[in-house]
């Protein structure tokens, strides 16, 4: 039995509810760094709303856990896999490649990172030719540049590749 | 009669070559800006406002209003075709627009959205023209308590009418509200919930980050899992038979059109409300009143018409307080208002007497823009068809690119891109476990406005919550609040009703 088959909807439901409950408690503790009281004499403390909203979240997660224990929710009776093995491959590769993309944006800049991301993604998931993938991976960042930097005048992060764009800016704004 | 003559003059103004050219160009840009995930009318108008300094104020307001209008139409395109709302105003359009497209009825969804937008826009601009002064007075009566009560009702609509698991729905609302409190406290200025002292949290969480994360990244992950990358996106066939069928399906949406047009307009004129709650409320009420309410969410044209009618109607409605009172009815009209000051105009009732060409040129242009956007929207359907023919394995990374750039563009911060990814992954997992995600998006949009209205109300009442339930002092707020309470407790009576109903049937 694969790992993905062991994680059932039932297990995911209770695990997520417990994680959300812990997150709610963490939010309450963080909110309490500010004053969480409120009465007619003094204004509402900066932590009041986030604290009680987090408390509400905690109550909701506890209710979800109670429904789970009493088997009142559909998920509490569902022993099917939370995610199928084949689909897991797609999801995992996508998530990892997106995380690497954003990490790379901070260093290489968005345009070069997009070239590598698109080339990898298309090579992995599509059956297109190397020529198509190369052209597509190069054209998309160029169009992105033209739309954001030339049309909308929004500069996107360029990381260490920034000096390469100076001649382009000189041409655009000369 | 005077109004009719002024309107005719306004329409003539909008037909002047420069104004007409900018109007059509604005509609076109608006359609594309609205269709792009992450960019909505507010982004389009904010980005384009600097270029209006080189043209006369009347041409400038006609151009920007056309962008605003076009974006309202365009938001539905990505909601239907990609399952990603182009802007928060089109969130509710996803609920039924996306299932219709998945069923192969994208043409019906797009036609319903376009016609719904046209009807909502037309009804609201007629209302705008005829009833501007008395309606502005209604909006004037809404102070902080009424605004807060209205927001509570918008949240309660999800609990009472959403049909999802109640604790999970309330959790979704509360997490959206909690996320909206991140940043500087609006009264004391103290930093709140600055996790690990990361400076990026100081400016709060832009709702677009959550919306693109959930509806962009999360939706793509969901689709990847469902399709395993092997099928294409929604199919769309354009032929006379499909067009005829799409228009035929609109016969059953008359009620949705009425609700969306009128509700949208009245919610739109309220400062701090606007197109997003209008579209969500319109969807919720239409669903509740429909004979086929259980089919909503599985792909019914009325579920597309209701929000689209309402968001267009609300966008026109939001211009009413902007023009007559100098109070913006939405974030986009706030930027337009700022533009008016930069153009050397004084927003407010005096505009009607001192700058009639400007005011009536804008009103006249709304009629024309409504028509042109409908034509352009339907004429561009073949362009959407081309997008759909692209295999999903190619479309998915392009959408990821749009999401990453769209997440970065509003604040130009990588911190927001990381948050967007986090929300995308979390949204995907929560959605798999039947946590409704739409209430979280609504809450993060309305959260700061609701908090401001709540705190202003409590200052007015010396800290007493009774201000929201005082039928003598604040009857409108009280009525809205009682409706909200009924909506909140409605799910508790659902099982009892069914129990008694079944018992009555058996006896």
Taken in chain order, the helices and strands of chain B follow as HHHHHHHHEEHHHHHHHHHHHHHH
Relative strand content of chain A: under 5%
Alpha-carbon distance between the two ends of chain B:
64 Å
Number of strands of chain B: 2
- Which protein chains are joined by the largest interface, and how many residues does each one contribute? A-B, 66 and 58 residues
Strand line-up across the major sheet of chain B? 1-2
List keywords for this structure.
heterodimer, A: 174 residues, mainly alpha, 2 domains, 7 helices, 71% helix, B: 507 residues, two-stranded antiparallel sheet, 22 helices, 2 strands
Gist?
Chain A has helices spanning 3-6, 9-31, 48-69, 85-108, 110-125, 130-151, 162-173. Chain A is mostly helical and 174 residues long.
Description:
The complex is a heterodimer of chains A (174) and B (507). With 174 residues, chain A is mainly alpha-helical. In chain A, 71% of the residues lie in helices and 0% in strands. Chain A has 2 domains: 3-77; 85-173, no CATH class. Chain A has helices at 3-6, 9-31, 48-69, 85-108, 110-125, 130-151, 162-173. In chain A, helix 2 (9-31) packs antiparallel against helix 3 (48-69), helix 4 runs antiparallel to helix 5 and helix 5 (110-125) runs antiparallel to helix 6 (130-151). The radius of gyration of chain A is 25 Å and the shape is flat. Chain A starts with a helix and ends with a helix. Chain B is mainly alpha-helical. Chain B has one domain (2-138, 151-227, 241-460). A two-stranded antiparallel sheet of chain B has the order 1-2. In chain B, helix 4 (57-81) runs parallel beside helix 17 (356-379) and helix 7 packs across helix 12 (275-289). Chain B is globular and about 55 Å long. In chain B, 60% of the residues are buried. The mean pLDDT of chain B is 80. At the A-B interface, helix 2, helix 3, helix 4, helix 5 and helix 6 of A face helix 8, helix 9, helix 19, helix 20 and helix 21 of B.
């Amino acid at each position: 039995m694969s790992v993905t088959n062991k994680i059932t909807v039932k297990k995911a439901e209770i695990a997520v509810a417990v994680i959300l409950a812990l997150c709610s408690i963490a939010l309450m503790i963080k909110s309490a760094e500010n004053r969480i009281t409120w009465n007619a004499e003094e204004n509402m403390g900066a932590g009041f709303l986030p604290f009680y909203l987090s408390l509400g979240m905690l109550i909701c997660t506890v209710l979800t856990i109670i429904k789970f224990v009493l088997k009142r929710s559909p998920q509490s009776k569902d022993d099917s896999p939370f995610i199928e093995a084949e689909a897991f491959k797609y999801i995992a590769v996508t998530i990892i490649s997106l995380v690497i993309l954003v990490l790379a944006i901070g260093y290489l800049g968005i345009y070069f990172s997009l070239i590598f991301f698109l080339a990898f993604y298309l090579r992995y998931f599509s059956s297109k030719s190397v020529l198509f993938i190369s052209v597509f991976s190069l054209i998309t960042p160029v169009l992105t540049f033209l739309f954001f930097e030339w049309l909308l005048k929004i500069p996107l992060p360029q990381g260490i590749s920034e000096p390469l764009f100076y001649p382009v800016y000189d041409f655009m704004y000369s | 009669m005077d109004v009719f003559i002024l309107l005719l003059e306004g329409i003539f103004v909008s037909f002047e070559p420069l104004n007409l050219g900018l109007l059509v160009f604005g509609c076109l840009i608006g359609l594309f800006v609205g269709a792009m995930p992450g960019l909505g009318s507010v982004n389009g108008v904010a980005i384009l406002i600097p270029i209006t300094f080189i043209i006369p104020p009347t041409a400038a307001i006609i151009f920007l209003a056309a962008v605003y209008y076009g974006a309202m139409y365009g938001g539905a395109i990505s909601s239907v075709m990609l399952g990603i709302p182009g802007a928060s105003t089109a969130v509710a359009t996803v609920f039924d627009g996306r299932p219709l497209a998945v069923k192969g009825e994208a043409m019906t969804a797009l036609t319903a959205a376009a016609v719904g937008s046209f009807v909502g826009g037309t009804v609201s601009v007629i209302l705008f023209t005829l009833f501007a002064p008395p309606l502005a007075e209604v909006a004037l009566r809404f102070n902080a308590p009424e605004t807060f009560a209205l927001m509570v009702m918008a949240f309660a609509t999800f609990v009472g009418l959403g049909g999802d698991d109640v604790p999970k729905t309330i959790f979704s609302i509360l997490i959206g509200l909690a996320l909206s409190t991140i940043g500087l406290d609006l009264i004391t200025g103290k930093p709140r919930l600055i996790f690990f002292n990361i400076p990026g949290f100081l400016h709060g969480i832009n709702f677009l980050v959550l919306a693109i994360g959930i509806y962009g990244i999360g939706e793509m992950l969901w689709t990847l899992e469902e399709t395993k990358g092997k099928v294409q996106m929604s199919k769309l066939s354009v032929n006379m038979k499909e067009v005829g069928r799409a228009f035929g399906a609109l016969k059953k949406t008359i009620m949705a059109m009425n609700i969306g047009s009128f509700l949208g307009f009245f919610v739109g004129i309220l400062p701090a409300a606007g197109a997003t709650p209008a579209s969500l409320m319109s969807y919720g009420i239409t669903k509740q009143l429909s004979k086929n309410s259980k089919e909503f969410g599985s792909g019914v044209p009325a579920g597309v018409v209701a929000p689209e009618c309402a968001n267009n109607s609300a966008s026109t409605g939001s211009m009413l307080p902007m023009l007559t009172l100098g109070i913006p009815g939405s974030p986009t009209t706030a930027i337009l208002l700022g533009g008016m000051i930069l153009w050397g105009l004084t927003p407010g009732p005096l505009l009607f007497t001192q700058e009639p060409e400007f005011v009536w040129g804008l009103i006249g242009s709304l009629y024309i823009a409504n028509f042109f956007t409908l034509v352009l929207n339907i004429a561009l359907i073949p362009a959407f068809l081309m997008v759909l023919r692209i295999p999903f394995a190619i479309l998915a990374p392009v959408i990821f690119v749009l999401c990453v750039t769209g997440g970065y563009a509003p604040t130009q911060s990588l911190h927001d891109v990381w948050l967007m990814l986090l929300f995308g992954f979390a949204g995907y997992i929560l959605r798999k476990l039947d946590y409704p995600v739409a209430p979280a998006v609504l809450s993060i949009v309305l959260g700061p406005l609701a908090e401001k209205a709540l705190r202003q109300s409590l200052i007015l009442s010396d800290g007493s919550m009774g201000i929201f339930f005082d039928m003598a002092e604040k009857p409108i707020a009280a009525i809205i609040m009682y409706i909200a309470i009924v909506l909140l407790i409605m799910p508790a009576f659902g099982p009892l009703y069914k129990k008694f109903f079944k018992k009555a049937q058996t006896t």
